[in-house]
Amino acid sequence: MGRLKILLEGSRGEKEEETAAAQSQQLQQPSACIICCRNIEEDTVFELARPFSLSCGHSCCTGCWLHTISDGMKNGRAPTACPEPSCPLALSLTAASALLDSASLRKYTHALTEALLRQQKIVRCRDCSRLHRVVSSRPSVRCVCGTSICARCSSVAHAPVSCRAFNDYCIYMQKNGLNSTHVSAADAPIIRNLSQCPKCGILAEPQYE
């Protein structure tokens, strides 16, 4: 899980981290949970009543945090945001590991991974399933296994062809009993010129007489 923890460490910039750290030093430990308004004490014997916060210092009782995380995962919301509405921070895997048991942490890891895949912040290698952070300036990511992956659609790297055109090309190849694992610049004109038959929907190269 170490590699995944590095990839999914959080969703904020360095300046936000510095600001949050400074704010947390200035904030005093609140006496009440900002969700349920019940008293929270560090030395209480009731574990669910103990405070928990991110580096921002916005404290809630552990019970409310666990409920918020569980509710978020059920409704497809990940990562779990700080309960303070104006706070930009979210629960990273590092923070979650201090709060969740092993089974819940696995579920949160899965939910966070799927959310970042949908947001195109990470891609999964189609051959070995390793996760890679997406760099906006690069159209593709090269995995250590040797596979090059499109940073937008997670298919095999296909620059300079667009994702939509490449998907059409893959359908065309499959309909014709062929496979394609690599696209070069020489293939681009062919892919762009594919046309869909209005009757059967099969993609094919236009034939001119």
UniProtKB/TrEMBL annotation:
What is catalyzed by this enzyme? [E2 ubiquitin-conjugating enzyme]-S-ubiquitinyl-L-cysteine + [acceptor protein]-L-lysine = [E2 ubiquitin-conjugating enzyme]-L-cysteine + [acceptor protein]-N(6)-ubiquitinyl-L-lysine
Q: In which pathway does it act?
A: Protein modification; protein ubiquitination
Q: What is its EC number?
A: 2.3.2.31
Give GO terms: molecular function aspect only: ubiquitin protein ligase activity; zinc ion binding
Which InterPro entries does the record match to this protein?
Answer: E3_UB_ligase_RBR, IBR_dom, TRIAD_supradom, Znf_RING, Znf_RING/FYVE/PHD
Gene3D superfamilies in the record, alphabetically?
A: Zinc/RING finger domain, C3HC4 (zinc finger)
Q: What is this protein called?
A: RBR-type E3 ubiquitin transferase
Organism, scientific name: Pristionchus mayeri
